[in-house]
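thought: user wants a sequence for this fold. calling inverse folding tool.
action: design(structure=
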């Protein structure tokens, strides 16, 4: 069964650590941060979206990317 997590702030710190934990637990992760140069490639099950959670259009693109790629969202961590 596919499990999909959306994680904000994946460029560093708690967001990055959270994304890694989900990936280690066999989730597909869609991650977003403002600093795209900081978001390293975390593997085949990771999709990066550049954006700012304070902007409605960025939030919509974040959710749309997950839905278009995986068809579901199981967890939101922000």
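)
observation: tool returned 78 residues.
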């Amino acid at each position: 069964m596919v499990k999909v997590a959306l994680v904000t702030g994946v460029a560093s710190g708690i967001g990055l650590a959270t994304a890694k934990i989900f990936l280690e637990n066999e989730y597909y992760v869609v991650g977003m941060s403002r600093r795209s140069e900081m978001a390293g490639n975390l593997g085949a099950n990771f999709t990066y979206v550049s954006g700012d959670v304070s902007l409605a259009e960025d939030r919509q693109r974040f959710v749309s990317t997950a839905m278009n790629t995986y068809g579901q969202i199981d967890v939101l961590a922000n």
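thought: summarizing for user.
answer: Here is the designed sequence. The longest strand covers residues 28-33.
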